[in-house]
Write a sequence for this structure.
């Protein structure tokens, strides 16, 4: 039973549920500024989970990871996105989602699928790790769904970064973090990716006068 | 200084230097010398492995065995020959006004940065660092794809970034799962991602987790290999970026991604073989065979519909990567040996073809195949280069591609005879698809006002000669490396 678990594990499960909830919120969000805020909240929840795991397991390098997540995913990247959105003058534009109800139904199905895949793992028979792995896989899949359903560059980037949050959550919750050298490398890659995304916003706007990547459609295989 | 430090350090330092001073006139020559020095360092490294056996491993962060040492040398070699081609090519791009000096700085810095990430991915022992390096390879090339800043180039770069970004994210999830499976077998968390340790304890890894991890890693790194249906970024990125970039993307990046898949397959196979009854022990192999065959057949058909010469040859790359994936999936010593050989000859041939294609599109002033005509009469070296290169890649004897495809067909005939049919049909379809486009370009009527360009065909001649040599006789040390790698991958040696 859930109430018989130690307090720490209950807290982890609660945080995992909230991370999954923010993924759903991102999927349905229509305004770009709110989307950035929800993304920052998701980062904060991941950082909190990391700190909690660090406290409980005594793995001190995880405090460092938590600080890194806080700095990158909660402060730096949302701040960069905020600035870009204002400089590009798109903070008032609605980012509509086509068929939000269908998207959310598909999202729910993906969560069930993630649980279905992780059920047969023996190693996880009696632990909360099964839940956290399933939820992190679900967050990854929901990030992909967001990438597919959105056609604005900014929302795609947020979907991509939320997918990374899912990966990070998996690493922390399932295995108490990756070795330090890997985590530093991953953080570095995420940072560079964020900067390149920023550069791209300007390139895309200069080339098609909008950030609607649905209009990037010149390179398809088609009869002419 | 050890050879390994030089192999990794030269491109890294050159990348930083060129990032600072890449707009200077000497940058292109410096790029060439740095790539050449990198090749010498890798040859030294290969010599060390040849005489003293595998390097690193155990608790070391680096591991050089016979499987990756030849890929390291190949990467450095193709990097150097492409740099030789890049110098006059990029100078012409600059003088024709398509690129500014500032963009050339970005180009040169990214070129060396890309080589560094590839060498790091190949030489590391840590599966996490392998992931970081693969992602670094995407990041270092994405701004090169959009180098010309045309709407098409921006679109191609965005697709490349998003699709490869998501793909590689899935691979990270797979890596986390491997780490999770390893946490039980290897108590020290610092060692739990080291490939040599994992390979030693592979029988103790939880098979269900490893299969899920393998699926994620196959789809993730498979995106970078260009496997259908995750291939859509590849023709776009290859056709819109500068041609030297297409040569190294096709010749090197795809190989390194496949290398990553094969390394993980070794672990998964080990875990499944030790736990019979959980899953079919050949499941990873079947998955790779399926993806490989699908890519091979679909890309062969797409060859017929192309209008852009660089798109044509990027579909040919998908086709050959599919063939290699199929070979490694088939398993067994003969197919594995064929796959290893095919990796080498495809890299050499395809980068030679892209070099020729770069010159051909400069001659015609267009990448559209309908504009490229009469190459043999305008500039015989380029025309013959394209014709011979295409003949090699289509699998004509006595070149190396023929040998590896023949070995693969024999292996297929012995283990999965009914699969020989789609393979033969696919080879025929691809052959027709290539030659219906290449013949008019090489022989067709000469358009007016077409003149020869300054071309450096030495890299093409050297690489095609090497492929011919590999087709006639494989040097003993190379055959021995292939054989050791075959033993590592399939558990049996061939020779």
């Amino acid at each position: 039973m859930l109430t018989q678990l130690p307090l720490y594990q209950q807290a982890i499960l609660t945080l995992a549920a909230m991370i999954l909830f923010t993924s759903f919120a991102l999927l349905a969000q229509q305004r770009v500024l709110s989307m950035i805020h929800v993304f920052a909240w998701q980062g904060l929840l991941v950082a909190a989970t990391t700190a909690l795991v660090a406290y409980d397991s005594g793995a001190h390098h995880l405090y460092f990871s938590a600080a890194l997540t806080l700095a990158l995913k909660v402060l730096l990247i949302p701040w960069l996105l905020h600035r870009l959105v204002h400089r590009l003058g798109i903070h008032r534009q609605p980012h509509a989602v086509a068929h939000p109800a269908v998207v959310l139904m598909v999202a729910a199905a993906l969560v069930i699928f993630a649980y279905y895949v992780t059920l047969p793992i023996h190693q996880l028979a009696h632990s909360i790790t099964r839940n956290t792995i399933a939820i992190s896989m679900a967050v990854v899949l929901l990030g992909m769904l967001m990438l597919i359903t959105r056609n604005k560059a900014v929302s795609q980037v947020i979907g991509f970064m939320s997918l990374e949050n899912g990966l990070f959550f998996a690493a922390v919750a399932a295995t108490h973090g990756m070795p330090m050298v890997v985590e530093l490398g991953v953080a570095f890659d995420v940072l560079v990716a964020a900067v390149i995304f920023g550069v791209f916003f300007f390139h895309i706007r200069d080339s098609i006068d909008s950030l609607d990547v649905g209009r990037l459609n010149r390179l398809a295989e088609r009869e002419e | 200084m050890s050879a390994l430090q030089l192999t990794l350090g030269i491109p890294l330092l050159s990348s930083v230097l060129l990032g600072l001073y890449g707009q200077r006139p000497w940058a292109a020559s410096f790029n060439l010398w740095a790539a050449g020095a990198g090749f010498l360092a890798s040859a030294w490294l290969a010599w060390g492995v040849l005489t003293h056996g595998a390097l690193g491993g155990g608790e070391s962060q680096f591991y050089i065995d016979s499987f990756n040492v030849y890929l390291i040398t190949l990467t450095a070699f193709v990097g150097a020959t492409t740099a030789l081609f890049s110098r006059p090519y990029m100078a012409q791009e600059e003088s024709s006004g398509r690129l500014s000096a500032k963009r050339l700085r970005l180009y040169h810095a990214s070129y060396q940065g890309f080589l560094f990430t590839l060498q790091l991915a190949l030489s590391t022992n840590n599966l996490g660092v392998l992931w970081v390096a693969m992602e670094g390879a995407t990041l270092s090339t994405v701004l090169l794809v959009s180098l010309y800043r045309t709407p098409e180039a921006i679109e191609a770069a965005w697709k490349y970034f998003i699709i490869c970004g998501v793909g590689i994210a899935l691979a990270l999830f797979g890596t986390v799962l491997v780490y999770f499976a390893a946490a039980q077998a290897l108590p020290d968390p610092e060692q739990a991602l080291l490939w040599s340790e994992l390979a030693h304890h592979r029988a103790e890894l939880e098979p269900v987790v490893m299969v899920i991890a393998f699926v994620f890693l196959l789809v993730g790194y498979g995106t970078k290999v260009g496997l259908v249906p995750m291939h859509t970024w590849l023709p776009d990125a290859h056709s819109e970026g500068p041609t030297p970039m297409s040569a190294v993307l096709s010749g090197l990046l795809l190989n390194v991604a496949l290398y990553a898949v094969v390394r993980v397959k070794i672990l998964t196979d080990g875990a499944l073989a030790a736990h019979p009854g959980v899953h079919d022990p050949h499941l990873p192999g079947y998955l790779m065979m399926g993806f490989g065959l699908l890519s091979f057949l679909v890309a062969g058909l797409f060859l017929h519909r192309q209008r852009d010469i660089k798109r044509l040859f990027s579909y040919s790359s998908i086709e050959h990567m599919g063939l290699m994936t199929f070979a490694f999936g088939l398993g067994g010593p003969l197919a594995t040996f064929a796959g290893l050989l095919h990796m080498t000859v495809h890299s050499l041939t395809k980068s030679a073809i892209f070099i020729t294609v770069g010159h051909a599109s400069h001659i015609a002033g267009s990448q559209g195949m309908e504009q490229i005509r009469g190459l043999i009469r305008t500039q015989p070296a380029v025309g013959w280069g394209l014709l011979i290169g295409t003949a090699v890649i289509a699998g004509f004897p006595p070149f190396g591609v023929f040998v590896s495809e023949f070995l693969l067909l024999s292996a297929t005939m012995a283990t999965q005879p009914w699969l020989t049919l789609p393979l033969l049909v696919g080879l025929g379809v691809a052959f027709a698809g290539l030659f219906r486009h290449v013949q008019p370009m090489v022989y067709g009527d000469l358009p007016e006002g077409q003149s020869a360009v300054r071309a450096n065909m030495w890299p093409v001649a050297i690489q095609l000669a090497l492929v011919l040599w590999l087709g006639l006789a494989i040097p003993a040390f190379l055959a021995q490396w292939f054989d050791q790698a075959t033993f590592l991958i399939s558990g049996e040696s061939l020779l």
User: Anything to note?
Assistant: The longest helix of chain A spans residues 180-208.
